[in-house]
Amino acid sequence: MPITDAMRTRHVVRQYLDTPLDDVAAALLARVEEANASHGTDIRLLAGSARVFGPLWGTVRARSVRNCLVMAGPDTPDLDERLGHAGAGLMLAAQELGLNTWWVGGTFSKRAAARASGATGRVVAVVALGYGATQGTAHDSKRPEEVASYEGEPPAWFTQGVEAALLAPTAFGKQAFTLAGRDGEVMITCEEGDYAGQDRGIVKYFFEVGAGRDNFRWAS
């Protein structure tokens, strides 16, 4: 499955079948190791025993979650963004492997996640994953002109990048980001909040895939 197809078919799934990851675990773990090496993170895969949700969530939405990625790394100012970027790639990799995912930035126990996975540094989020009871549904989306602008005639890569960014999962589905382009440079701005860094990293990854990383540069 091309990664662009993975973007379009990936939806939030909160209920999972009790099917082990045996056939795809090795491939997923290899992608985790690549992500850690390229992002300086300590993401861990918990398979079969992802007991990281509190009592309330354990009996409601998350009761069927058996596997997850624990998103962690050295506590630096840009950790949330780096984990968002790495996690976006891993969610799409999981989708390519036939799995479903759910990015969870809160309502789980960071202490339990660190203890169960052995992850070091600061735990930022978990990504529940497995074989979904459903394939989820597409989220409501803003229009491209509501989140993006380009000075002058926008090149095709910018338009494609914005379309991809609108497929990215964001906190509470708010899509609280803007993308502004000029002379081959793109600036991203996210609404301030607890999940702004995660959103920035996730949206950046999706935009990069849609636009083609060699076609532009991020504004510093």
From TrEMBL:
This is Nitroreductase family. GO terms for molecular function: oxidoreductase activity. Residues 3-211 form the Putative nitroreductase TM1586 domain. It comes from the Bacteria. Gene3D superfamilies: NADH Oxidase. Pfam families: TM1586_NiRdase. It comes from Actinomyces slackii.
